[in-house]
Each structure stands twice: as C-alpha cells, then as structure tokens.
Amino acid sequence: MIPLRTIALSCLALAPVAVSAGACKPRSTDLTTAASTLETASSSEALQSTATDVTTAVTSTIETTASSVLETTEASTIETTSEAAATTSSAPCPSYTQINPPPSGKVCGKVVTRGTSDSSPLYLTSQLSTTGLTGCAKYCGDTPGCVSFYAEDYVPGSGAPTFNICFMFKGYEKDIPFGSGQNGGSAYYEQDCFACVRDEAPQPPIPS
C-alpha cells in the first residue's frame, strides 16, 4: 500500500500542471455532505431569526393591547366620574339652611314691605311656604332665574300658625320697588344667604 505521505506529495507535485489525480480529487459524497451542512446552518439561522421576529411582534402586540385597555379604562372611569358629578350638581337641592353669620356683601334679612314689588318687571312668582324662610329659599332655588326673595308673614286665621308668602325675583333689592317701614317679620333675602343641604329630607308638600 502507498503511504499517505507519498500520495500527498504527489498531489502537490501534480497541481501546478493541472493534472487531475483521482487520489487528490474530493469525493462527490464529501461535497454533498458539505453543502448539506451549510444548508442546515442557513436554515437554522433563518428559523432563529424568524422566531426572534415573531417574539418581538407578539411582545409589541401585547404591550399595545395592554396600553389600549389601560387608556380605555382610565377614560371610562373619568367619564363616569364626570357624569356622576354633573348629575349631582344639576339635581334640585332638596333643602336649604340659612347661613350664619350672613355672607359678606349679601343682603340678608333687610326689613322692607311689599310696596309695589309684585308689579316690578323683576318679579317672577309667589308661593306659600309652610317651613318658613328655608322654604322660600327652596322655592327660589327651584325657580329658574330667581336670585332673591321677599318673605311676608301670613296668618290664615285666629290661632293659626304663621306661614310665609315668598315673592321671588330675578333681580336685587336696589332695583325692586319695595316699601319702607316695618311689617311684622317680613324681610328681603338674597338667595346666597342660604346654603344647599343634600342630606336632609325635602320640604313637605303644601297642604291643599
């Protein structure tokens, strides 16, 4: 048998003259194996790259969805809270209480008489209150445009309790033709002399 060293030296000697020696030529099976190895490596790299792309896409989709859900939830919460606040603020006040001491700059309890106030263009309407001044404040609060009222004492008969007739106005005392003098417990009030109380029962209905 020819030693491997001899074969190797023969190949080197024949290479410059382009002699194709069988012992020096790679076998076709070797080339096929090498090509298969390269193809497998390329396929593996492609799969790894595809898997990375898929993972990135899924992660991005999850993050986007989570962000969208969070934003929608926050917006819904804000909208619900705003609607509840608007409903509360627009609901009629069930009852009022007189503010003591009176607010600065407001006319509260000024003694006047009716005069010709009920013929004033600022006059709106009148109601009988069975709960005193706070009842007048309730009527004024429920009457669109009302900013003040004049409460006049009213006794329906001998021994009967004293009620108030509430004359409501869309203007203020300086522009209303009240009379001067004193008429029992009758007096003029601006609506801001009273505060809304939402945790008390509303005024009872007027007896027929």
TrEMBL record:
Comp. bias (Low complexity): 70-91
UniProt entry tagged with the keyword Signal: yes
Spans annotated as Disordered: 70-98
Keywords for the protein's UniProt record, in alphabetical order: Signal
Signal sequence segment: 1-21
Highest taxon in the source lineage: Eukaryota
Protein name per its UniProtKB record: Apple domain-containing protein
Source organism (scientific name): Fusarium anthophilum
